[in-house]
Each structure stands twice: as C-alpha cells, then as structure tokens.
Design brief:
mainly alpha, Lipoxygenase-1, domain 5, 5-stranded antiparallel beta sheet, 25 helices, 11 strands, 48% helix, globular, metal-binding, oxidoreductase activity, acting on single donors with incorporation of molecular oxygen, incorporation of two atoms of oxygen, dioxygenase, LipOase_C
Length: 660
C-alpha cells in the first residue's frame, strides 16, 4: 500500500463525505459459524471505514481499491427470510445498505403520517387532523372544501409546513367524476397497466346481461364494433387471492377502525377507432356467475358523444365507478405497487448479491438501481402494511398477507416484459405510434419507448467484445457460472421461489432479463408511484373500501341517491381518521424525484465510469434520454385530456431506483 499526500488541510465538505466512526463497534459473541462469518465481514468493513476516515482527516489517500467480497461471504450477509407473512425478502439489512427513515421521507410528510397512523393528535403541530371532510353533506360540499383547503395551503406563509392539500389533486377538476376522466385514468393514472382486451367469455357475460335488461343500444354496439374494441378491468381475483369462496362477503373489522366492505368489480370499456375510452358497463360484485351477480349496470351514455348533462346526478353510475376505483385501490397498493415493484426488486437485489461477484458486469449494471430499496421495503413490512394498509383495506389482516402470497405465486417475470405485457393486454407495440386508437394511452407509448432506450443501453454494454459480443456470445452466456447461479437463486424454493424467472442461455435473453430488472426499479415504479398524490388524495376518486354493504338487487342499485354514495365514503365524523390516512399516505409517497437519483444523473454517472464500455454506453444513453424527453413531450401534447399532462415518465422525473 502506498500513501500519497493530497491536501494537508482537507475541506470540511470532504470530512462530511463519510460517516465518522473513530472506534470499532463491539459485537455480540457469535453463536454459530454463519454468524461468525457475518460478524467477521462486518468487522472488516468497520476497519476499512475507519482507515478511510483516518486518511481523509490526515489528508492522505490510500491507493488500495475497495476489497471485493467473496460471494460466499455475501451469502452470509444477504440471507433470505422465508418464514414470515411476506414473500421472500432480505432477513437483515447489512450496515452499508441501511438508509435512515429521515433520508427516505421528507420530514413534514413523515411527521404528519406518523401523527395519523399512531393517533398521536396531541403532537399534531401542523393541524393535519383538521383536514378531514368535516361532516359535509353533499358531493358539491366535498369538492368545495377540497378547493378551499388547496387554495389556503398552496398560498400559505413560508414558515408554515406544506401538507396533502398543497399540491393539486384530481378533485379540483370540475369534471373529475365524469366518464371521460374515469376512463382516461386507466391510460395515464396510478395504475395504467391493468386494463386488458375483453375476453370472449366476458363479452358473452355482458351480452347476456344486456339481453336480460333489453338494452338494445348496448347490444347494437357489442355486435357492430368488433371484439377488439372492448377492454375490461377485471378484479374478480380478489376473493380467490384472499382465500375466500366465490360468494363469501368481503369485509374488514380492523381494531380501532370502522367496519369496511369490499366487492370485486368488472368494468367494460369501449375504445373507439379515434382512441376515446368510454365506460360501458360495470358489474358491482362478481360472485362467480351471472345468477349470483345481479347488479350489472349499463351506462346511460352508450357513446362518449352522448349528452353529458345527466352525469353529475347519475348516482347509481357514479357509485358503480366508485366500486371499480375501490377495487383498484387494493389491487394497486398490494399487487401492482407493493409486490410487483418493491418486493420483486428486493428479491433481485438479494439474489444478485448471493450470485454475482461484485466486479461481474451484470452486478455492475444493476447495483445503481438498488439505492434505498432494502430500507424502504423493511419499513413497508414493519410499519406501512400493518399500520396503514391493513386498517384501510377492505379485507382482514390475514387476508392482506394471503393476497400478497397468492399474487406472488402468479407473478410472471418474463410475461411482464413491456412488449410482451402490452401485446398480451391487447395493445400491439407496432401500432402504438401509428394507430389513432392508442394515441391516448400515454403510459403504453412512454413505457415502450423507455424500455427500448434502457434495453439499448444494456445491449451496448453486454454486446461489446469485452463481455458477450462477437462470435460465441451465446456460448459465453450459457457457460457463465454467475448467470446460472442467479437464475437458480431466483427460482430456488430456498431462494426467491420465482418459478417464472428465466433460465438465461443467450445474449438476447440476458439483455431482456437485465433490462427488466432495471425497468421494475426505475420507470415502472415511477409510473405507478408518483401520481398517487394527484389521483388519491381526493378520497372519493379512489377510496380504499366501502363503508356500507353493496346493494344486492338491481332495484336497490337503481334507487341509489347522492346520500347513498356519501354513506359509502368515509365522510362521517367517526370515519375522519380513515379519510385522512387515505389522503396522507399518497402524499407521503409522491414527492418530486430528486435530481441526484434521476435517470439523467444516472446516465451522466455512467458516462464517467472507469469502465470504457459502460462510459461509451452511458454517453449514448444521455443523448437517448434527451430524445425521449422530446418524444414524451410530443406524446403528452397528443393526448386529448389537456388538464393533466402525462409527464410522470419524463426522464428527469423518473427515479433510477425505488427510493420511496
């Protein structure tokens, strides 16, 4: 080891770059060989940090490189937890990966969330507990209160803290409840990757219902438009995922919270050749058959061009749309968001640490996309799920964990590759930019281009002759023991238990797999996380549950009034805590993406990498992201809804990792 004098008086900023640990921390006596290995590795890291600290203080730099941990040693640090209520995850976060809660969340948002979650109202210094619906008696009053609070807190004094009403939300739109806004949310809202082409079976169900109700206008449309014009939101897997029978009631009686109710709705949409998505019919609660599911409501407005004057007072239809949004709250929060991004990416992190050497090119391509993920997921398991999701969900605590477990069994890693997923759901990627039918599907158009851009970056690295390029590339991949180990770790019953993770044996398969790992952490999580505040803080747009049982007859449903819809929402004084928690958590999770963790910053850092192959690919990525920004701006301008521009996937707004 050689020492080089750099600066006898290092600046204060340099001293703050490292955590200062001038003493080695005492550790408990290990009780087993694995614990001894883990303790030894951690002790080594402490010593290395202290040496680095000394060299910084003294103005010296060590010429030694960071020691590479052997895979065997890292297997002791990164151990699977397979015995609790959650899908496979990391048992204990190693010290070097730990991120404090105050570095993850903005303090004011976190503080107010804690006040609401733990009912610590004596510490409510910001007055967040006073932001509820305040016993309003009409939807118009709810909208007016929402606007009043936004006007107040978006123009408050500089010394007053922001709150959930400071940013804009969907409830400020005078048309928030309309068919147009409801339909567009499945293309550019918080969950834009669930809508799918209607199967023949579902079309038959809706056709039979239309015949029973003698709805000739709907029958004419169903027969003339062609099957490819119809799409569904299908939430009929909720009961089975929760371990319930097809007709069992969906209900929750969480301690300290009011009784809540759920349904599993199905919504049918008509997507016309000009790209207008229009809700046509809603099954309030599918219970396995038409005979068991009598409440099937058809929109009085069969086409989007029909008069809109009746929409505001069509309370049965507004209630039906509320049921769909309630179903999506559970599906989005538990499956699309928590499981399919947070928990899946954690499995990738653990599996990679247990499989690759730290200088392996796949490990180096992936590691920058793991920032904060392990710590935020640990917080989700310890606090967010039991203290927020469980009290607000329409199912019991045990059923929440059962939904996570059963949904994980159905997770399809390769089936969710962006081009495959879009095609399987009835949106062919070759037509996204050429067929007017798809021009409003901002998520699909953006995410497909983002996938292509990230895949190009990954390909530029992996197909270089320094790695797997040139003749024999596939053979190199197939023979790579680290890649084999990663697939085995992800598939193993003693590992991630992900049976759909691919066996990678070609360069193209490797490129797709690595791209998917980055996609989950960066654009996919960004798309389904950062719009939560806008669409969910105004609770009537997407409530977590119903507060009255759903009607069981068409007569009862058709008799629904404004008061019935209000009763189904948490607007009464005794439901105030639930309302506030539903509104606050989306605000907590939707801050602006900081530049330091954005995709353009990642590209700049890659362009400066000491590996010339990565640096070259990083420079190309920088240029490609600039082109994406221009393309996404153009796409946003083409979408018919001009009130809320679809900007969440702009590169500068896309986080490189799951940082919150």
């Amino acid at each position: 080891m050689s020492l080089h004098v750099l600066n006898p008086n290092p600046p204060l900023a340099l001293l703050r770059q490292r955590q200062l640990h001038p003493y080695i921390t005492a550790r408990p006596q290990p009780e087993s060989y694995p614990e001894a290995i883990k303790s030894t590795v951690s002790s080594f890291q402490d010593v290395k940090r202290n040496l680095d600290w000394f060299f910084d203080i003294a103005g010296f730099q060590s010429s030694s490189e960071e020691e590479q941990q052997d895979v065997t040693e890292r297997k002791q640090l990164y151990q699977w937890e397979l015995t609790d209520s959650f899908p496979p995850h990391l048992r204990t976060i190693p010290y070097e990966d730990q991120v404090s809660t105050l570095k993850i969340f903005q303090f004011n948002r976190l503080y107010d969330t804690a006040v609401l979650s733990f009912h610590a109202y004596s510490f409510d210094i910001h007055g967040v507990h006073d932001l509820g619906p305040n016993g309003v008696t009409s939807m118009a009053a709810l909208e007016a209160r929402n606007k009043t609070l936004h006007d107040k807190w978006s123009n408050h004094w500089f010394f007053q803290a922001d709150n959930m009403f400071t940013p804009e939300n969907v409830g400020l739109r005078p048309d928030w409840y309309t068919d147009a806004v409801f339909g567009q949310q499945w293309f550019t809202g918080t969950n834009p990757n669930t809508i799918s082409q209607a199967s023949a079976a579902w079309l038959d169900v809706f056709t039979q219902a239309a015949k029973t109700q003698s709805n000739q206008a709907v029958l004419n449309l169903l027969s003339s438009a062609g099957a490819a014009a119809f799409y569904v939101l299908d939430y009929t897997g909720l009961r089975a995922a929760a371990g319930l029978g097809p007709t069992d009631p969906i209900t929750s009686t969480a301690p300290g919270h009011p009784v809540k109710f759920g349904v599993q709705s199905v919504a049918l949409f008509y997507l016309n050749p000009q790209g207008k998505i229009h809700p046509l019919s809603i099954i309030i609660d599918w219970q396995g058959s038409l005979a068991n599911s009598p409440c099937i409501l058809f929109n009085k407005r069969v086409l989007h061009t029909d008069p809109t004057s009746t929409e505001a007072a069509d309370w049965p239809w507004r209630y039906a749309k509320t049921c769909v949004q309630m179903c999506d709250w559970a599906h989005h929060e538990l499956v699309v968001h928590l499981l399919d991004t947070h928990f899946i990416e954690e499995m990738i992190v653990v599996g990679a640490h247990r499989s690759f050497s730290t200088d392996h090119i796949v490990f180096r391509l992936l590691k920058e996309h793991w920032t904060t993920t392990l710590s935020i997921n640990a917080l989700a398991r310890s606090t967010l799920v039991p203290k927020v999701v469980v009290p607000l969900a329409p199912v019991s605590e045990d059923q929440v964990y059962t939904i996570l477990a059963n949904s994980y069994k159905n997770f399809d890693f390769t089936g969710l590759y962006v081009p495959t997923d879009l095609a399987n759901r009835g949106f062919p990627v070759a037509e996204l930019e050429t067929n007017p039918k798809y021009h409003n599907y901002g998520y699909a158009r953006d995410i497909n281009r983002m996938w292509e851009t990230l895949r190009k970056f990954v390909s530029n690295v992996l197909t270089d002759p320094a790695y797997y390029g040139g003749a024999g590339g596939d053979a190199k991949v197939a023979a790579d023991p680290y890649i084999k180990a990663f697939s085995a770790e992800m598939q193993s019953p003693a590992g991630a238990k992900m049976t759909t993770f691919p066996n990678v044996s070609t360069v193209n398969q490797l490129i797709d797999m690595v791209t998917m790992c980055i996609h989950i952490a960066a654009p996919q999580h960004t798309a389904i996380n950062y719009l939560q505040q806008y669409y969910m803080t105004f609770v009537p747009n997407k409530p977590s549950a119903l507060y009255t049982p759903a009607p069981t007859t068409m007569a009862a449903l058709k008799a629904f009034t404004e008061q019935d819809l209000l009763n189904a929402l948490p607007v009464r004084e005794e439901f105030n805590d639930d309302w506030l928690l539903m509104a606050q958590v989306p605000y907590l999770l939707s801050p602006d993406v900081e530049e330091s963790v954005s995709l353009p910053t990642f590209a700049r850092q890659a362009a400066a990498d000491k590996d010339k192959v990565i640096a070259k690919a990083g420079k190309t990525l920088k240029t490609d992201l600039d082109l994406l920004t221009a393309a996404f701006t153009n796409i946003a301008g083409q979408i018919d809804d001009k009130t809320k521009a679809y900007e969440v996937l702009y590169p500068k707004s896309t986080a490189k990792a799951i940082v919150i």
